[in-house]
Amino acid sequence: MDIAVSVNGKYLYTINSQSGNVSTFAINEDGSLTNLGQAGNLPKSVGFNGIAAL
Question: With contact defined as beta carbons under 8 Å apart, do 26 and 34 qualify?
Fold first, then answer.
């Protein structure tokens, strides 16, 4: 699983390369996370660099 934080520090993204799902979370002021949803059916070999290329 790959994890990245947006440049502004407000969002956290995870990629599960085995299932091809990307999950997005808002990072709250207290550091807790709010699940904003997920997208699926991405190629299983895609990482964050691959998503930027899509």
Answer: yes
